[in-house]
Structures
1.
Amino acid sequence: MTSQLPILAVAPLLFGAFAVTAGRFLFRRANYAVAVLALAASFAASVLLAVRVFSQGTQTYFVGGWPPPIGISYVADPLSALMLAFVAGAALCVFLASKAEIETSYPLKNSAFFALYLLAVAGHMGIVITGDAFNLYVLIEVAALSGYAILAQGRDRAMLASLNYLFIGSLGASLYLLGVGYLYIMTGSLNMADLAGIVSGMAPQGLAGSTALAASFAIILAGLFIKMGLFPFHSWLPAAYAFSAAPAAALIAPMTTKVMAYVLVRISLAVYTPHLAWSLPAVNALVVTLATAAILYGGLCALAQQSFRRMLCFIVLSEVGYMAGGVFLGNRTALTGVIYHIFADLLMTLCLFLCAANVERATGGRLSGLGGLFTRMPVTAAALAMGGLSMIGVPPFCGFFSKWYLLSGAIQSGHFLFAAALVVSSLINAVLFFRIFEIALFGGPETRDTPDAPNARNGHAPGSPDAAFCAEMPAQRLVPLAVAAVSLVVMGLLTGDFVTRVADAVLPPGL
Amino acid sequence: MHALLADFGGTFHYYAYFAVMMIGVYAMVAKTNLLKKCIGLGIFQTAIMLFYVSIGAKDGATIPIVDPALGTADPALYANPLPQVLMLTAIVVSVATLGVALALVQNIHRDHGAIEEDEILKRLRGQ
């Protein structure tokens, strides 16, 4: 039983998706419970798996009993097992917290939403655990297709934004596939562990020695950057996340960009090995420059936003810059920072998007409408403060430690521009969140439903204000939010353990 | 010149897939009609399938199904089955992608009464 844990982490979601689709006709009322059960089972399996991996070392599961390189293997090492647990936990939190939204935002389509939600989570978890380069492509598409469908339902131009995301996202995934094709021509294998051996044997001096391998690396990178929303390829992200209904954004925003950053780390670490991944100076310089631009662009655009969720979307853009740039700074400290930041950013984004969902429900989500938040919605406001402080990088929140590692890495490698961008981004975040704190502490409630309020003009808006502005939210919404907020501190306090047990375990020695 | 041509004979499928792929990208970038963008996406993905199948091809080899007359001793008699199998999966994925895209286009047409991107944006602004 326990040796099957890697597949058990993903399987309940797939079966759950079938069950809720069938349940549409059989047990409609119980559908929500079935979906919660599937998510909880998958979360439990991933936690057990993580415990097992930390006590006994890496677990490998051969799907269908076929050993690699013929079959597909699922590999749970400390990094992927912990990532799996985080993704499953985040999905469960969002699902529990957004029950009311799901019922109002997706009227008559609850079962379809549940099925798509479970599939999206299954896709993301599969991406994290798979050890096969082609299977990764399929799972990217499973995660993305269900994501497009749930992001499409929302305010006026959600559908158009989601279609644009589909075009750009498919382009990115197809580029990844193309890169894997070149890799396959050169190596004849698709299993990541197998690939690593062949690739490093083929180009011992660096990727510049083999044009085809260098091309495969560059094409895969281009594909992943498009899927991550790195600076010049970012245009789909804010639109797709800002116009959709709140639960979809709260699910997809913490997951997709972070899981793609994880894939970037995995491909650089386990397929090409850092030594080869960093062997093309032009690529390193280009990526770090793009990342610097992404950090600054995201921050500056966030300053211009009037809506809370849209502001968060641009902060996500600059966080993507942290992770993409960090991978190519070329030293162990920065890579540790990136691995840490993937987890930290997942928690911060989760916490803030859950806050955004609550705030939107109560006030409509414009920044100017946040007046009096601390007295009216103390728990949400406290979580927002914690998420904000973590984004700014105040110790002991986890955002501080990832910035610390990235900054040290940038200075070690002499990328002072990137280091400066990190500092500027912290300052911008400070401006953004202290502006919110000021409104929330000292501002009075705004007269609502002004004609230009984005939610005033359509029926099934995610943020149609509740009648009672806020008799705070029900516990079902607050508990997941509180869990997310507290985990920011816990993650920060456990930084030392994290670095020794996760980052050091997956980073090759002597890097 | 002859050497160049001989080289081209061995690699022309790369040029071919690349040309088809760029046609797809052009359609996705330059067209404002959402359906034409969908077609562009289809062309783009098909180009990659073409690429994969072409790398599994061998001169004078037959389809990768064991033929009793040929036996299994010499793999050079059969095309490489793996890229073809991978592309079966990719075809399914691209059909699903196209399905989602068309469903979205249909809904956009229902909501906004147009499938020209600039027209939809104009209507959204004029709302």
2.
Amino acid sequence: MTLSLTPITRLPECPEIGDDVMRGSRAAAVAMSESAEVMQRHAAPPRWEGDEAVLANHQMTATAKRLGGSVAALELGIAALDEYSDTIRTTLAPQHADHQKKDEDLRAAERTLVPLLTKDDDETKRKVAEHNAKVEEHNGVVARRERRLRAAEDIVIAALRKVDTIAEGAAATSTVPNVPALLRHAKSLKDPRKIFTWWKGLDRDQREALKTMVPEIVGNLNGIPIVDRDEANRAHMSALRDSIEQREPGERTARDKADLKKIRGVEKGLGKADGYGVPTYLMVFEPRAARGDGHAAIAFGNPETAKDVTINVPGLTSEMKNFDSVSGNAWNVARAGRNFGGESLASIAWLGYDAPSGGLDPLDFAGVGREDKAAEGARNLSSFVDGLHATREHPMHLTVIGHSYGSTAVAKAAGDGMDADDIVLVGSPGAGDGNTTASDLHANVYVGSSDQDPVTRLGNPSPVGLGGDPASSGFGAHRFHVDDGHRFAWTPLGLKNGLDNHTSYFDKGSGSLDNIAKIGIGQGDKIHEVAGRSAASNPAWWTERNEGALRDRVLAPITAAHQYGDPYARAALDHGQRFVEHAGRELAEQQRGMIEEHARRLRQAGEVVGREIQRSLTPRTPFLPGLP
Amino acid sequence: MKGFSVDLPLLHRAAKVWDDQADNVKAAQKRLKAASSQSSSLGDRVGPVAQEYFATWQKEAGARAGAAQTRANDLAKIGHDYVVLDEEAAQDLQASLPWGKGSAIREAEVHPVEGLRTPKTLPDLLSPGQQP
């Protein structure tokens, strides 16, 4: 008897869902939905009872209806494709690689057995029987997979065919979910946990309709799951960019140009993880928020499933258009955390408040000497954190990191009961008036504070600080080591050194970043801890640094512009140089461009300040804390 | 005899609405075209169905965008023609007035609507504060 081998069933290809299919069609649906809504605003009222011919001839009413049909068809089609995509992404694709390996192994074994089939000995019979059993088992797996795929395909095919003509789209408008009613209910809930429960109770069509018609709400509503937020925000951003880019550059309005800058800032942020295999999520996208400066948040890694989650809250000068640098700090934390073994770390760059604008100069110190923006930031941050907790199945270890003015916002949020495990304040001008000790913050409090960072010397008793200096020993936080920077000094020709000490806490390879990353992955006990400052050291520090101030009073009208504009620009260019050394050329060029633009603006600002000083003959020293 | 007058600022605001929506829907059409061309990756069974589905809505978006652009252009042209006609009528009118009384027909400053592309010379009686 001739032995025979059971044929191996061919493993079908695993379908792929390209970006243009899901993200692209969502962006299209959002754009068409916006236009349908605009036309609807100018259309005849729904219960108009006048001449039918006039109604039928009204073009905006007719266009609103036609676009409404397209939107309904896209919502239903995208919902079906989304379900199909989910089945492939979560079930079929992860198994495909295993099945493929099994298929290859069996075919290799088959090739070795074929020459033996003419033999009739027991050993060969045993080998063939063993192989056939494995093949049958594999064929069974492939058949089940095939059935599952066909079932998913049948559903999406039926759904797409149901709305693939204009007439079917028009008919679908009566079956699509009632978005205004859903939205009213969502707005009444307020609590992120209730919003999460409500969202999970919606069907896929309802969720898709909301993402298409009100992406600006779904994408930014705390309590909505991160994948849905990301999809809504990316669709919103893409639709906005596409629409602007449809116009010739010369035809774009000032708002168009500002929006494009903000979008590019966010896109550069998202691009930081390209090539690293780390998923990114656009958690906040509100270009009109913060009086036009915009709100944005990006997560590197999934904060709904990661064991450790960090949130970076930036400070002075942070805006959506320079979100590239804001997200760069969070990305550095993510990478450093992984270097210390934090395999399950998600790092979020969060700009959800109106950070004070301006350069790092004494005028800005005075300008940010109020806590109102920090208080607003604290409220928004706490709500964002509540949203994170609400969408997680398991508890997380959460670290909230505030830099500069952002540290005041973080401290205020923590003081008001924000639900975080660890708080990190770096380059802090103060922990807020209500927080006199670390115990007021209801979390483990860590502080990174360069002795040569002038911003950290603004904490009380300075008149322009924002509460107590968290680096002082009396505050009671864990102060960690920060690399020594340039000595901060004023000179008659302008301060030349030291402002970069305020902007280098997240530099790659720095001691500060290492300590922050350790805290972020729950290794706060492994930081390099150093002693706190004495409470009286800050005024003395300013007095010492202002030794040249008398000469400055004489020279102020001449040197003011230089002093206000050049130092930060120089420090920033130093950073750019380091960036060139450590990062890729392309990224470095982007950074350099941003810095040069910033430097140009700062110089302009400096010139204005210089003229103002010259006009009023007011020396700059009154702006400096610690002077008699 | 019954006559008609045109509210030019309103007419130009309407032209801007059509023009903006033409841009928006045109951008959507491009996205749908890209989605259609990537549909083949969805598999042998779903791919062709998705391609047909996207093709329908891509064509519809193109048609709506084209129609919206035509409306914007037509409105802009009507506004332009209306003002030009007024200039001619003004000259006729001035010719009929007593010599030296022609200043009763005054020339007014006109502004184009920001962002409206066609026609480039579109006059607009909007003052800057009235612009949409």
